[in-house]
Here is the input.
Amino acid sequence: MAKKEEKSKNEQLQKRLFLDKKSSWSEYSEKQKAEAFAFSDKYKDFMGKSKTERVCVENIVSMLNKNGFKDIAGMKSVKVGDKIYKNVSGKCIIAALVGKDNNRWQLIGSHVDSPRLDLKPIPLYEDAGVALMKTHYYGGIKKYHWVNTPLSLHGVIHTKSGKIVNINIGDNVNDPKFVIPDLLPHLARNQMERKAPNVVEGEDLNILVGSIPVDDKKIKEQIKFTILNYLYEKYGIIEEDFFTAELELVPSTMPIDVGFDRSMIGAYGQDDKICVFTSLMALLDVKNPKHTAVGFFVDKEEIGSVGDTGAASFVLQNFADDYLNLTGLKIIKSALFERSNSISADVTAGLDPNYKDVHDARNAPVLGFGISVEKYGGGGGKYSTHDASAEYMNYVRQILDKNKIAWQTGELGKIDIGGGGTIGMYLSRYGMNCVDAGPAVFGMHSPCEISSKIDVYTSYLFYRAFLQE
Here is the structure.
C-alpha cells in the first residue's frame, strides 16, 4: 500500500486560512440528505396550496392552530410557554412562543406576497370575437414571462347581494385555465425590435375568458353577456361586483422536482414563501426557547412594504403593545425592540451560469451551498437597505457554526447592476439587530423560480437554531 502523502505546513495552514466554499450536499450525511428531501416534499405541498397571500395566511393560521397556538383576540394574559398569534386583515400574521426571558424577541420576518397579475376594477370586455379581462401587474416582473402561460384565478368577491364568494379556478387538473396570447413570430418584427420592458406592454396583459356568444341579436356584446351570465348563475356575481373583489392571476402549474437527481424545486412564488414555510416550521418545532420566538409574516413587500399589512406599517408596533399588555412586562416598547434580534428571511439571486456577467462571482451565493447570510442589500451605494454590524454578523456566524449548518454569504449582483430590498430595513429601524438570510434562487420573480432542496433545509435549520437561542 502506498504511503499517504503528508500535507506540507503551508497546505495545512491554507486549509485554516482560506474560505472553502463547497456544495452543502457534500457536507451532510445520507440521513441528512434524506431529511432534506422529505422536508422539501412538505414544502412543495405547502407551496401548491399557498399561491396567493390571502390563502397563504389561511394555511399559516391552520398550521398554528393545529400546533397549539391561540388567537390573542379576547385573551387577558399570557405566560411563559404560551403560543399566541394575531391575524391582521387576513394578510399578515404575527405568531409568538413566549420564552423564559420574555423581555426580548428572537424574530424572523418573511413576506407572503409574490409578483402576480391583479384584475382591474372593471376588467371584462369583448373584442374581435373573444371575451377578455384586463389586468394590472403587481410587483417587479418581466411582462413577457406571463404571456402564453396557463394561469389560475384566485381571490374573494363581496357581492352586492351580500354574499362572500371565494374563487379558485385553474389549479385542479380539470379546471379551465386562463391565457394571455402573445404575438406570433411571423407578425412580431416590430415587437422584437422593442426593448425588453416593452416587448409586452402592461396594457396588453389581457386574459382570454371566453368566445361563445349568446344567441340573441338584441344583445350588443353577446360574448360578454355569456360570461356575465355564467358568473351570475354559478357565483351570483354581477359586473359591479368586480369593484369589491380581490382577484389575482398566478401560474396554474404545481411545484415540481427539477433535474435528473431531483435536487432542485421549480415553483411559482418561492420568493418569499420558501422563507415563510421554513421559518414557520422552525417556529412550530422550537421547544422552550430562552427568549420569545416570533414569526412575522407580512404582505406588500413586493410593492414597497406599504399598506396596513406591510412591514412599513405599524402592525409590529401594535403587536408589541398587545404583547406587553398580555405578559404584564414593566418595560417600554422601545426597550423591547432594542433588546431584540431579527432575521429578514428572504431569497437572494444565485450565481446563474447562463448570466454570470451580472454577478461578482467571488461574492455571489451559489445554489446548493447552504443558506446565504447577507450583511446588506439595496442597490448602488447600499441605498434602500440596512447594514448589519460586525458584532451581529459574528453572533449569527456562531449560531451557524455551533449547530453545524451549511452556510455561505454574498450579495445580490454587481454593485451598479444588482440590488434588491427586503423588510430588513423596516425591522432594523426599531433598533433591533437585523440581517438578511435566505436561500439563493434562479429566475426570481418569474412564473417558475428554482431553488435547491438542501438550501431549503439549511434555511429551516438556521431559523430553528436562531429562534431556539
